[in-house]
Amino acid sequence: MTQSDDPVPTNVVGEQADRQPAGDADDNAATEPLATGAGSDRTGADAGADRQRDQRADEEADKETGEAEVEGPRRRARRERAERRAAQARATAIEEARREAKRRASGRLVNEPKPVARGVVRGLKMLLATVLLVIVGIGLALILYFTPAMSARNIVVVGTGVVTREEVLDAARVRPGTPLLQINTSQVADRVAAIRRVASARVQRQYPSALRITIVERVPVAVKDFPDGPHLFDRDGVDFATGPPPPALPYLDVADPGPNDPATKAALQVLTALRPEVAGQVGRIAAPSVASITLTLGDGRVVIWGTTDRTDEKAEKLAALLTQPGKTYDVSSPDLPTVK
């Protein structure tokens, strides 16, 4: 007998539909045709195997779904953190790209150094120029200090009268040919000023090869006799010479003449305050104390001066009084001068 080609009975198909889940039925409907019709090759055994596989797959899916429900929050947190980090990295990369594009647009590369400010460059140039000038100046100073080209080949002495040039040169002790920068002008001036008749001295370098020494000699304003002869005193009370006094030099009558003696300083202050026409008439000035100064004129008339207070006023009053006849002229009180 031959096998019948009739289609599968309707009750078999209905039984498969009852056993298969709704979702699986849909999937099977979408993926494979129903085992109906005359052209189907599936057997009943094959359909049963398919149902068993589907059941096992459903059980595994249900198991995984249960595990996912247990571990879901932790995995979700890790996933969210990873997503935040990735988003932050993307934002950083975008910002860096934006900055790089901005720098490139302004004509500078990312790693290109910033140009130095113009003021800084100018300051560095000035500093370098200053350093070079200092170095050059030091070099020139050293050359001038040691070179004989700038040496004292000529020594000029100015202001001599009674003091001779030889006295000045001997006191200066400057060796001809000494470089000018090696000469200590202050020390040379001090040595020259030590001469008794010299009141002050000044030493100057005159480049390229001269040294100038200028002196001011002491001028006698009074004389006093000593056992060894007359001693001359200048306006500061310095005893600077011994010898015959110049004509018409007044005699100084004090107990202990000297630059530190109050009576000497008071008497000389009066002498230097007198008008020239009056000072030439004074033959002697006596100062037993600073409060009792008297002058004796060459013709014998006496002037009572008193103290050194208001000396200039007294000198003016005396010049007017001497035009009047008399023997004693009292200007100790310049407000009430008298003539006797």
Automatic annotation (TrEMBL):
Main location: membrane
GO biological process: cell septum assembly; FtsZ-dependent cytokinesis
InterPro entries for the chain: Cell_div_FtsQ/DivIB_C, FtsQ, FtsQ_DivIB, POTRA, POTRA_FtsQ_type
Pfam families: FtsQ_DivIB_C, POTRA_1
GO cellular component labels: cell division site; plasma membrane
UniProt-annotated stretches for the region Disordered: 1-106
Biased composition (Basic and acidic residues): 48-86
Domain POTRA intervals: 150-218
Membrane-spanning ranges: 126-146
Subcellular localization(s) per the UniProt record: Cell membrane; Membrane
Domain of life: Bacteria
Ribonucleoprotein is among the record's keywords: no
UniProtKB keywords: Cell cycle, Cell division, Cell membrane, Membrane, Transmembrane, Transmembrane helix
Membrane topology listed for this record: Single-pass type II membrane protein
Function comment: Essential cell division protein.
PANTHER family registered for this protein in UniProt: CELL DIVISION PROTEIN DIVIB, CELL DIVISION PROTEIN FTSQ
HAMAP family named in the record: FtsQ_subfam
Membership in a protein family: Belongs to the FtsQ/DivIB family. FtsQ subfamily.
Protein name listed in UniProt: Cell division protein FtsQ
